[in-house]
């Protein structure tokens, strides 16, 4: 049963240095707070009962979307889904992450919830992780003892579980540039109604040698909501690499992706949808390269 | 009467501004000094023996003022009522148990109550109550529960709590004469009311020692039931009903009131109790799931010959209104069709699921899903257009229900409604995507308005014209958001020729307003509308009689328009209403009236073969829909819904259209999305994240078509629309999906998973 939120002490530091020192001090008893769309619900459900809340919203350096001359996109910890979806700093080749941001919750939760928060909650059904997996994103983790950068592919360890230590904060997401002739797409399939949790999310970045041959030189497929964690469909990726991308190979790739997914509830239907959505996403990705 | 001044117009509702600006006070907006917070401890098993309850530690916690269990309730077991003053008997009044005693019948059943100084302390106290349960196997499928030797949910020797039937002709002979027979089983599931406002209330004892309960309730007559629970006289309990944030039948049974009453009675302090969202999902009734076995036979020319239906309803852990709902389903089982040979049998059965009771439609939508799916199948088998199929078989004016033989002497809107609903779909949409198929479906139906006639229903209303020309109405009418109080104001505005802004209504207070009966059964427009009309016309007639003296014109030539009594054939001759009121006051003429309206009364029918009139009247309608189905994903998108009903007379056109649009979406959610899921009695969908209802993104264009035959029994010939409005759309959507992809979904909701599975089976 839902309960009143437990009593806690509230901090609103204005620098990152303060955040990491508070995290080091209240190890395990503190919870970082940005949009609050997951934290507050978990507190009402008494899934977490933090003694300290560290609100990071007042730290300007965590809020920014930058595109470097080298083609790399950096997204700060405070960037909300809504803010990202309408940002003019995001070049068109990263549209798929906008699509994933728009698949999250409702207008209200998109305008409060952050992309980094979405990653931290580590729900198997989250929308941005499959897109970020396909984009081969990195995460910058900072603590009082130093910082490290990990690939998002190595971040999730189980449903609502990840490698983030209780002394660490994710300060930004780093998305490497895409090679020539690449196209990305995120497609999602809702559970029941239009505005609903994701039943199957498929993020794809497809690269071909050139538009004449259409030989797949690289492919990354991120799947959401079909396994204990967001996952890469590695077998499907390997299958298509080196092959000409056409209707038949797309179909086969989609089938392999469906077979390597590991859904639990509504399993038969979910697998079928991995197939359908992977197929559709690959065709659309190819169209985007052509455009 | 001459032509209407305000009746029939789409006017802003009496309560609209307060709702839009947020100034309206709902039941949980009230606080009182020294108020305590109530909380309910709920069973963690769907079926269990309670071996012991230890409240010692909870009582010891600082700030806790009361911890109550079954042994503290003066009358823990009474009967379920819904406001009726007649005792019907025959099993209709089932057991109402305030707190679980010895045995638990469903998960979430109330076991103990706490009142404490803060909500946090009350929650803590719940954690300190030690209940020693012995889990029992339970039974969760009504068909299983009916079998001999099944686990017994309650204390009696059988789980069956209601058996109904009706028949005419000879079905065996009918099937023998049929050219085509369809036999199938249809299943519909639990539906939640999903009202926005959770169950809420506040209670206190006033200066006279009367227990006051301010509560969100559709039935303020429960003050009697609460008094019975406490064992005190009925006049020592007062209900003050607040305007509800939705009810849909879910606030028809007692919700928080008995708990509030007990906690205030024991502590002598004000107590507030508001359910959490997960608590409301788990602890109020749901729409009855039904298993419906149907067999229907027809001739080659489409004419229906025989219909046999066997319905089994799931009552969940307690009876509540299950018997009544099942009676409605029995009466509705053959729909609005002429069928010479009919046999219906309906049972309703206890299980250890969440209890079921009233939900908008009250037993009408379930059989509608079955018989309209079959009608669609018949029309395809016989290659007869769906509208023609209804033209051939629907009852018309002067006809009778094939289940009970109840005769309709006023206009029956068939085939008109079916023709209009189908026509309004317009040209079919195109699909450029080969995976997206377009389909269209039609369904017709009927539902009663007004209570069962053997309940001997009445409503009262008081209307007073003040000496300054303003008007006061007092009516016990509860307003659940459908415009009930606004409607009464509009009727008085029409009759007394005053603007809505000069009318003030006091409503739903058992101590101060004449009882108007329940806001259920789509009865308020009909019952309280008529009571109000009667009272207003009496006051009007006294005004006109006085004006006759002033203007020297026959009463028949006078009308009250814009606060003037005018001569209808010469509007330059008039006298102000104010002047007439003053003349009446001077002459000692009473400008108030309390009037009572009685529905037709009938005896209690033979339940094994229900014949004759069971309801005052029915509302007839048709709905159509266009959908697209993605054959690769099974996803359904609704493009358009048409809703067409004979509403008799739309008193407030905007409100009627609102009911028809809202009803369509309520039914669309039932058809496509809503599924209150239980696993062995444990509810799995306890939030709006899991229990999905349509959002604005799912809602298609809804076209409303009003037929205004004037044939209703309500004021100005109005019929009721609140519940009929949601009772027909589900099969229209089933039929549209069939039209699109050729598979028929026979269990609600119509999920993409089911469609895809059916498509695969079909292609094998």
Q: How many individual domains of chain B?
A: 3
CATH architecture of the largest domain in chain B: 2-Layer Sandwich
The CATH topology of the largest domain in chain A is Uridine Diphospho-n-acetylenolpyruvylglucosamine Reductase, domain 3
Distance between the termini of chain A: 52 Å
Helical fraction of chain B equals: 25-40%
Fraction of residues in β-strands of chain B: 25-35%
* CATH class descriptor name of the largest domain in chain A: Alpha Beta
For the largest beta sheet of chain B, what order do the strands appear in spatially? 3-7-1-14-11-12-13
Provide the helix percentage of chain A: 25-40%
Oligomer state of the chains in this structure: heterodimer
Structural class of chain B: alpha+beta
- In round numbers, the mean pLDDT of chain A is 97
Largest interface: A-B, 18 and 24 residues
Overall mean pLDDT score of chain B? 97
What do we call the CATH topology of the largest domain in chain B? Aldehyde Oxidoreductase, domain 4
Q: Report the C-alpha radius of gyration of chain A, rounded.
A: 19 Å
As laid out across the biggest beta sheet of chain A, the strand order is 4-5-10-6-7
Low-confidence stretches of chain B: none
By CATH reckoning, the class of the largest domain in chain B would read Alpha Beta
- Number of DSSP strand runs of chain A: 14
